[in-house]
Design goal:
The protein is about 65% helix and about 0% strand. With about 200 residues, the protein is an all-alpha fold. α1 packs across α5.
Length: about 200
């Protein structure tokens, strides 16, 4: 749908998305109306439809943006060779990326059940691409004899759940700083697959 002249889409569009993400994370997708999102932004409810066809499209777009950004950032990591170093890097990256985006993480993981089938298929494919990155590390480590992983798919899901869980409790200024949390979780990830943690950086 065309946007009205002077609608400042470059400003209002991001504000709508940010408001929707915050409200979905706080109250749940099903409990949030388009009218509530509009009120959060300070526009009329009808104005939202200049930026998104409906609430379902808004949810799917939020998830897609989060996962696209995650995949791009992961792909940009500097290459490392040893499986232990790759797992250490992945764990630190995952935590560092997600800590800054707790609302996006909550929506991306907890609202999958509210996606319509076509959107679910598309979002699940992006999630699987990211999971495959970790599973490839685990497979390589097992093949090299440095990881003890009976089932790499199960280990992948367990590790991602553990790492993502940091966003539920981490707060800036708390007892442990970001770097300390990343280091501890990287060590736990390596321990979980039967490898020794890398030397402290």
């Amino acid at each position: 749908m065309a946007r009205k002249t002077g609608s400042h889409s470059e400003i209002t569009g991001p504000r709508i998305r940010a408001a929707a993400e915050h409200l979905f994370a706080r109250h749940g997708y099903a409990a949030v109306s388009m009218r509530q999102i509009a009120a959060e932004v300070g526009v009329q409810a009808g104005a939202l439809y200049l930026y998104t066809p409906d609430k379902q499209s808004l949810l799917a777009d939020l998830m897609r943006d989060h996962l696209d950004g995650l995949l791009a950032a992961c792909a940009a990591l500097p290459p490392v060779n040893r499986p232990e170093a790759r797992l250490d890097q992945f764990a630190r990256f995952h935590i560092g990326y997600h800590i800054d985006r707790p609302d996006a993480v909550f929506v991306a993981y907890m609202e999958l059940r509210n996606l319509e089938p076509a959107n679910f298929t598309a979002i699940e494919a992006l999630r699987r691409r990211y999971e495959n990155t970790l599973e490839a590390i685990l497979r390589d480590g097992r093949a090299a004899g440095v990881f003890a992983v009976p089932d790499t798919k199960l280990a992948t899901l367990a590790l991602i759940a553990m790492l993502t869980g940091v966003t539920n409790w981490y707060r800036e200024g708390g007892r442990l700083g970001r770097a300390e949390v990343e280091a501890i979780y990287a060590a736990m990830a390596l321990n979980a697959v039967g490898a020794s943690p890398l030397p402290t950086r």
